[in-house]
Amino acid sequence: MIAICCDHAGLELKNEIKKHLEEKNYEVKDFGTYDANSCDYPDFAYATAKSVAAGECEKGILVCGTGVGMSMCANKVHGIRCALCGDCFSAQATRQHNNANMLALGARVTGAGLALKIVDTFLDTEFEGGRHQRRIDKMMDIENKENQ
Ligand code: RB5
Fold first, then answer.
1. Measured between alpha carbons, how far is 72 from 1 in angstroms, rounded to an integer?
2. Could you report the per-residue pLDDT of 91-122, keeping only the tens digit for each?
C-alpha cells in the first residue's frame, strides 16, 4: 500500500500520481486533501507519515507547492526518512543509500512528466544495505537522542 497526500498546491499532481500508480496496480491510500480549498500541509503530512511509520503503508508520497514543508513535517515523525526530490538521480540514491520511506515532490517546481518518473524510480529502487545501514543506524541514534 502506498500512502499519498497533498495540500491545495499539490492537488493536481497528487491526482496524476494516484492515477499513474493505480494503473500500475499499486494500492493507494489517499489521505487528502481532496479539493482545491486552501489548507495546511502539516495536517496531511502528519497523518500520512504516521501511516508509514506504523507500517500500515509501505511507502508514502507527499505533494505540496515546493515539497519542502511536507518533507519537514514528515521528518518530524519517528522512523520517517523523507526525501524531497526534483530529479531521478536523487530519488534512486535516496532509496539505495538512505532507505528513504517517503518521497516529497514540489508541484510548483517539478513538472508532472518528471514527477512520475521520479515516483517510479523511487518505488522501483531497493536499499543497498551494507555501509549505508551503519549510517542510517547513526541517523536513527540522533533521532532517538533528540526525542528524549
Ligand atoms: C502553500 O502555499 C505552500 O506554502 C505549500 O504548498 C508548500 O510549498 C509549503 O512548503
1. 22
2. 999 999 999 999 999 999 999 999 999 999 99
Place of cell 508514502: 60
Residue minimizing CA distance to atom 8 of ligand 1: 65
Query: What per-residue string of b and e applies to 32-43 under the rule 16 or more CB within 10 Å gives b?
Result: bbeeeeebebbe
pLDDT tens per residue, range 27-36: 999 999 999 9
CB 10 within 8 A of CB 64: yes
> If 0-12 CB within 10 Å is exposed, 13-18 middle and 19+ buried, where does residue 2 land?
buried
Q: Which three cell numbers stand for residue 38?
A: 486552501
**Which residues lie below 8 Å from residue 114, measured CB to CB, with a gap of 6+?**
86, 87, 88
From 63, 70, 75, give the residue whose CB has the most ligand 1 atoms within 8 Å, as the site to mutate: 70
Q: Which residue has the cell 518528471?
A: 114
Angle at which helix 88-96 crosses helix 112-124, to 10 degrees, equals 20
Q: Which residues, including other chains, have CB under 8 Å from residue 8's CB and lie 6 or more apart?
A: 33, 35, 36, 37, 38, 39
